[in-house]
Amino acid sequence: MPLLRLAYTTQFLIALIAVFVLWSTVGGQNHLDLMPWYLKLGLGGGAALAAVRATVASVSFNKAWNGRTLKWFGVMLALLLGCGLASYYYHLYGETDEEDQQQEETATVAPATAVRTSSPAWKTPTP
Q1: In which domain, by residue range, is 55 found?
Q2: In a domain, 126, yes or no
Q3: Residue 119 within any structural domain of the chain
């Protein structure tokens, strides 16, 4: 039994890393940086814990896909959906840097066109 606990603990740590790597890749690291720590801890840790609990439920019975496994799998999907919705919320309503907006406004000005004042070098002027 202690070996099984070690395996579940290892799976939890790997799942925790996988959840946050997936979240930062799909949702965007900038949006993840705007979120408070307790939201990231609750959603990310909950999704990793639900993955481990689904594994525990799968190992406990003869059939791998049983009612408890499906319940924890559904909880994990709901928490991952919550991760996506939180990223979307911070994408829409997150703080933006006013300095970046000012730089974007100055960058939208169209550059002046160059005016040629002399004739090309291959053409000789006629007297």
Answers
A1: 2-95
A2: no
A3: no
Q: What is the pLDDT of residue 86?
A: 94
Is residue 78 in some structural domain?
yes
Give Rg (Cα) of the chain: 28
Number of domains in the chain: 1
- What's the token pair of residue 122? 């291959």
Q: Is residue 83 part of a domain?
A: yes
The string of pLDDT tens digits covering residues 73-87 is 999 999 999 999 999
Q: Which residue has the tokens 């997936």?
A: 22
SS3 letters across the chain? CHHHHHHHHHHHHHHHHHHHHHHHHHHCHHHHHHCCHHHHHHHHHHHHHHHHHHHHHHHHCCCCCCHHHHHHHHHHHHHHHHHHHHHHHHHHHCCCCHHHHHHHHHHCCCCCCCCCCCCCCCCCCCC
CB 70 within 8 A of CB 121: no
Evaluate whether 51 touches 76 at the Cβ level (below 8 Å). yes
| Residue 101: per-residue pLDDT | 61
Give the residue-averaged pLDDT of 24-50: 93
